[in-house]
Specification:
180 residues; mainly beta; 4-stranded antiparallel beta sheet
Length: 180
């Protein structure tokens, strides 16, 4: 028995579900995710942003995302074009902003000592002297002002510079004066 049969084969380019993003973001900021894979116009995007709030800037190309809670997040993209598909995963660390520092002061007859607790992720502590004499750093968590007169006072603001992507944060104004 002899016969002829025809089969049609459709060859499609496999989609590539690649996307770019930073590896760390601050909780008070958003991050831009850019699709940089390849796809056909009819491809179906299935994103999972691990609880992130999204704002689409360019459909399926650029997405802005922000998280309400800090921690490690896992992002997922499945790109499907007919029966062809590809998946990508990326992890990102969402950092909580630095806490507002609490500054304490102690006075003696000749000095005013400002001090605070060490805070993780602080790259640099900065003192803004608003009133009074300048002083000197005793350590990265204390600053000493020498008085000229017994009743001298000093007012400062302490700023913290984050070593990561989070914004700097500052203390309230701190006034330290000699007791009456």
């Amino acid at each position: 028995c002899r016969y002829f049969d025809f089969t049609t084969a459709v060859i499609r380019e496999n989609p590539i579900s690649a996307f770019l993003l930073d590896s760390v973001v601050c909780q008070d900021s958003s991050i831009l995710i850019r699709f940089n894979g390849s796809r056909a116009d009819s491809s179906l995007f299935q994103w999972n942003f691990d609880g992130g709030l999204i704002s689409v800037l360019v459909p399926d190309r650029e997405i802005e995302i922000k998280w309400r809670q800090p921690g490690k997040k896992r992002l997922f993209l499945k790109l499907t074009n007919y029966k062809c598909s590809d998946e990508s995963f990326r992890e990102i660390e969402v950092l909580a902003p630095l806490p507002k520092p609490q500054v304490f002061c102690e006075t003696t007859d000749s000095t005013i000592l400002f001090h605070w607790n060490k805070i993780n992720r602080v790259k640099q502590y900065k003192i803004d002297i608003l009133d009074g004499n300048t002083g000197q750093w005793v350590s990265d968590t204390s600053y000493l002002v020498t008085k000229r007169f017994f009743n001298d006072s000093s007012r400062i603001r302490l700023s913290l510079e984050d070593e990561g992507p989070c914004s700097d944060v500052a203390s309230d104004l701190i006034l330290c004066q000699s007791p009456d």
